[in-house]
């Protein structure tokens, strides 16, 4: 029997319509996104061919026609950040440009924009505020993505978007590759002396994972590199680790310099095409700050208040470093001596608190706070499919017992995950194309010490 592609229909037969991660293969994404794009194009053609210019016939229909594309794209992008091997990253170079070209064609479609603009001109007569807001959203989105450009400029914009769609995953692939490629292994305790017991144990576990018999292993993952720079007494080790971390993607197999130059160049050209001075002007237009000048004013004001405190702390660091025979404080000394100052002034060691704030306790505490503030409860479940064994799932219920949504946590670092922490969704709340109320599926992704 021929295997069915689970992404061809994004209404799954799983509990709560959860994504069946265990059934999805890399080869499923391209056929699924091509079908989604084809379906959306048919719907858009019907919108432009119809004489109707009311909200439901134009804006709502467009919103629902893009639903399939956005769901598959969202799933792909989430996995690209949270769980992607080399083959998946290679796939991104094919998948994302397909989406970029399609979305560029949508937002530069003059006939479609004219229809939306007609609805927008009569938006004051739209009584439902959500419908009115959606109309305003699409009108602005079309304008900001080139709908009012002439044909020649539209072609330039689409070319830029296509190139950027290829550069972003290449940048991410290099960054993750460089982070994973470097390890610092030593069998001399003096090289890593000062590491707290938990960090020392983690260094031993990392060494075992890498198939080494003796010693300790420091990686550039945040839970490993941060305590190393904060606690290791050996200055040479700190310098080695700091330079390794700070010089990721600077030359070698994972060099990102040319990619960064191209991204900056294309962002500038894109902003100019759309009538903005630069990428910051373009991006901030929809943000609370609105202009780069507002941002710089805020940062300068912040710096004016922060700098005196920072200078005072640097002087205190210099005094401590001088005792150790260090005449010139370097970047790899700052975290180490800042921690020493806290120990000297307040008898405080951050690592002493860790046993009391292990992740399980913190999660339980957050759930208690959420229940007290909002009346919602979290129920840990094991029947929801996940993309990695680290992922934990919860059903969320309102105070009346009604189901609110799914909550995923993916908290620990691994070689297939990007660094940092973020919130994302696998499903958004709202009406689906089948006119059913969908509950949100929300995920918190992080890289904290196991």
3D architecture notes:
This protein is α+β, with helices and mostly antiparallel strands and 450 residues long. It folds into 4 domains: 15-173, Orthogonal Bundle (Neurolysin, domain 3); 183-247, no CATH class; 292-348; 357-445, Collagenase (Catalytic Domain) (3-Layer(aba) Sandwich). Helix content is 58%, strand content 9%. The protein has helices at 29-49, 55-65, 67-82, 86-107, 110-121, 129-144, 151-181, 189-192, 197-209, 222-231, 235-246, 257-273, 279-284, 292-323, 331-346, 350-353, 359-374, and strands at residues 183-186, 216-219, 377-381, 392-397, 403-410, 422-427, 430-431, 437-438, 441-445. Strand 4 and strand 5 form a beta hairpin. It is globular and about 80 Å long.
Q: What is the CATH domain class of the largest domain? A: Mainly Alpha
Structural class by secondary-structure content: alpha+beta
Strand content is 5-15%
Rg, Å, rounded: 26 Å
Count of folded domains: 4
Portion of residues within helices: 55-70%
Name the overall outline: globular
What oligomeric arrangement do these chains adopt? single chain
Order of helices and strands: HHHHHHHEHHEHHHHHHHHEEEEEEE
List the defining traits of the structure above.
two-stranded antiparallel ribbon; five-stranded mixed sheet; alpha+beta; 450 residues
Q: What is this entry, summarized?
A:
The chain has 450 residues and is α+β, with helices and mostly antiparallel strands.
Give the secondary structure arrangement, pairings included.
Layout: H1 29-49, H2 55-65, H3 67-82, H4 86-107, H5 110-121, H6 129-144, H7 151-181, E1 183-186, H8 189-192, H9 197-209, E2 216-219, H10 222-231, H11 235-246, H12 257-273, H13 279-284, H14 292-323, H15 331-346, H16 350-353, H17 359-374, E3 377-381, E4 392-397, E5 403-410, E6 422-427, E7 430-431, E8 437-438, E9 441-445
Helix pairs in contact: 1-2, 1-3, 1-4, 3-4, 4-7, 5-6, 7-12, 14-15
């Amino acid at each position: 029997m021929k295997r069915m592609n689970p992404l061809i229909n994004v209404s799954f037969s799983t509990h709560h319509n959860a994504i069946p991660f265990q059934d999805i293969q890399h080869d499923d994404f391209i056929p699924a996104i091509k079908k989604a794009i084809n379906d959306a194009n048919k719907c858009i053609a019907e919108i432009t061919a119809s004489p109707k210019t009311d909200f439901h016939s134009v804006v709502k229909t467009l919103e629902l026609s893009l639903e399939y594309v956005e769901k598959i794209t969202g799933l792909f992008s989430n996995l690209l950040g949270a769980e992607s091997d080399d083959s998946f990253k290679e796939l991104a170079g094919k998948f994302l440009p397909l989406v970029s070209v399609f979305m560029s064609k949508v937002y530069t479609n003059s006939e479609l924009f004219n229809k939306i603009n007609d609805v927008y001109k009569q938006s004051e007569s739209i009584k439902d505020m959500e419908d009115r807001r959606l109309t305003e959203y699409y009108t602005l989105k079309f304008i900001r993505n080139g709908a009012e450009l002439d044909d020649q400029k539209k072609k330039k914009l689409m070319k830029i978007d296509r190139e950027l769609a290829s550069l972003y995953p290449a940048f991410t692939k290099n960054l993750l590759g460089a982070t994973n490629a470097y390890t610092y292994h030593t069998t001399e305790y003096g090289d890593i002396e000062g590491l707290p017991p938990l960090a020392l144990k983690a260094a031993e576990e990392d060494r075992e994972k890498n198939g080494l018999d003796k010693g300790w292993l420091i990686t550039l993952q945040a839970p490993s590199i941060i305590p190393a720079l904060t606690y290791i007494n050996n200055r040479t080790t700190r310098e080695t680790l700091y330079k390794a971390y700070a010089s990721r993607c600077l030359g070698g197999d994972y060099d990102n310099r040319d990619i960064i130059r191209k991204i900056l160049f294309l962002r500038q050209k894109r902003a100019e095409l759309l009538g903005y001075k630069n990428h910051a002007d373009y991006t901030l237009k929809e943000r609370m700050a609105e202009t780069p000048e507002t941002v710089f004013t805020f940062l300068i004001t912040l710096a004016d208040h922060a700098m005196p405190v920072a200078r005072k702390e640097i002087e205190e660091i210099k005094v401590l470093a001088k005792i150790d025979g260090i005449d010139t404080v370097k970047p790899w000394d700052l975290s180490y001596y800042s921690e020493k100052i806290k120990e000297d002034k307040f008898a405080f060691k951050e690592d002493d608190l860790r046993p009391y704030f292990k992740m399980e306790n913190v999660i339980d505490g957050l759930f208690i706070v959420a229940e007290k503030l909002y009346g919602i409860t979290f129920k840990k479940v094991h029947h929801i499919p996940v993309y990695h064994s680290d992922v934990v799932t919860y059903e969320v219920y309102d105070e009346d017992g009604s189901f609110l949504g799914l909550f995923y946590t993916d908290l620990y670092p691994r070689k297939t995950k990007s660094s940092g922490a973020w919130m994302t969704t696998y499903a958004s709340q709202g009406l689906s194309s089948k006119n059913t109320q969908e509950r949100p599926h929300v995920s918190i992704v992080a890289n904290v010490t196991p």
